[in-house]
Design a protein that fits this description.
Two copies of one chain form a homodimer.
Chain A: E1 2-7, H1 21-27, H2 32-47, E2 54-57, H3 61-72, E3 79-81, H4 91-99, E4 109-114, H5 118-128, E5 142-147, E6 157-163, H6 165-168
Parallel strand pairs in A: 1-4, 2-3, 2-4
Antiparallel strand pairs in A: 1-5, 5-6
Chain lengths: 169, 169
């Protein structure tokens, strides 16, 4: 089982004058450069034939737009949205959701698209069982985890790639 | 301070009939494919302008040949050899060697070329202070560590890239 953690691309800055900062943050969209870099990353993954059976995305606009580019580039036939991939999300709750799915889906390459510091914290939990804030995940970057079998569980992953976008594009 | 740990490229297999297995292992050279992939990795690093002030290599032929390709591609003006980068080498002893160098060399991008499982163990020691065998470093792959200042010390690094060669070439 391979799990890929994808950070959304470069997005517009938060509006410091927003009356509702949370709604403003949720609505931040990718910049032109952010969109272009995510497209280049997606093109490179397609060229390497690195595809997913499913991408689950944070519902926030910048993550959803990032995922939409991956879908448009045919890197995954399936897209789902999970609130646990929001910045306020929780790995243990997401794992409960994931484990509650019907078996037999045969997913061996799953991608999650979300935010920092969540994704690198999730990676450290899945690899080492604790958060140490030692992984640097750039916008548009990807963490690749490998599990010994088809179960995603805390403390059981190996890290096989940590890709800043400049190495992919 | 950035430290890059580079694993040698694909080499010929050990000779199971060798009378002196250690000498045989030390003499194993890169295969044609191994040489080609290392050249492609070096070309990509040059294109990204990711260069080093110094590469220190294991004296074993396959590592030395890998380093020679990096030097030929002008990724570093300086080459040194350290026995601590052999498979029998030791991070603490290498750190003692490194710390004993005259100050003022102003090295901010250092590369070490060696072997597994040593390099991924060294990376985990420098990042987390312990070896967990959770990093997968392919032949021709690169681990990139970032230190908060100009000192390389155990437990003080962040991991900013883990690059299987297929993502670089």
């Amino acid at each position: 089982m391979y799990l890929y953690l994808i950070r959304h691309g470069i997005a517009v800055e938060p509006d410091p004058l927003a009356l509702d900062p949370m709604a403003d943050d949720e609505a931040r969209s990718l910049t032109k450069l952010g969109r272009k870099k995510v497209e280049q990353v997606a093109d490179k993954l397609a060229k390497l034939d690195l595809k997913f059976e499913l991408i689950i995305t944070s519902p926030l606009v910048r993550a959803h737009q990032t995922t939409a580019i991956f879908i448009a580039k045919q890197l995954s036939p399936n897209l789902e949205v999970s609130p646990e991939l929001k910045p306020s999300g929780n790995l243990v709750k997401w794992l409960q959701e994931w484990d509650a799915r019907p078996t037999g889906t045969n997913i061996t390459h799953l991608a999650l698209c979300g935010h920092e510091p969540n994704l690198s914290e999730w990676a450290e939990l899945l690899i080492y069982g604790q958060v140490c804030h030692k992984l640097i995940l750039k916008k548009g970057g990807i963490i690749g985890l490998k599990f010994a079998n088809d179960r995603i569980a805390i403390g059981t992953a190996q890290l096989w790639c940590l890709l800043p976008p400049k190495f992919i594009i």
